[in-house]
Amino acid sequence: MSPITALAIAALKLESVPTQIYAEERTPVLFTLRAPPKSWQLVKIDADTGAVTQYLGPMNDQKLMGDQRAGDGVFTRKLDIQATGRSPRLAYAAIDGEDPKAAPTRLASVEVARRPTLPQLLRQVVNQVRSQTGGQKPVADSAPLPQ
Q: I need a labelling partner for 116 at 20 to 30 A (CA). Which of 19, 40, 91, 100 fits?
């Protein structure tokens, strides 16, 4: 591998959309990697240790599994993810499929949150309106809702 190719591969970035999902809800997540042609694999990794915990399959650039355009150098993999909420973050990586022992270095994470309750959503809206209109100070999470 040439030094330029090695630098280009080292600079690759795996991205996920959306970057946050709600616990206990199945959510489609699209992973993308702009990369030179290669056999890229998507894997789930342990967020603390970085160890591969699950092979999720190939990423592709052939207008399959969420890929928008064939041959554009953007490799994709679409997954339906349902997190339990035990971990606040799920971690994923793209690895060289031709060298499965290679360390996963292109990382993306998906944050896992609890869906806000209706009172929490109302407080957020009230605080946004107040901050945009120069109104009263924001409502604390434990404060009763304004009458």
A: 91
Cβ neighbours of residue 4 under 8 Å, at least 6 residues apart? none
Whole-angstrom distance, CA of residue 134 vs CA of residue 145: 19
Q: Are residues 134 and 88 in the same domain?
A: no
The pTM score is 0.71
**Cα distance between residue 52 and residue 137, in whole Å:** 46
Q: Is the dihedral of CA 96, 30, 79, 61 positive or negative?
A: negative
The residue length of the chain stands at 147
- Residue matched to tokens 């209706």: 118
Q: How many CB atoms lie within 10 A of CB 40?
A: 24
Instruction: Outline where the chain has alpha helix (H).
Output: 3-10, 118-133
Domain count, the chain: 2
pLDDT digits (tens, 9 = 90+) for 70-117: 889 899 999 999 988 778 889 999 988 877 677 776 789 899 988 888
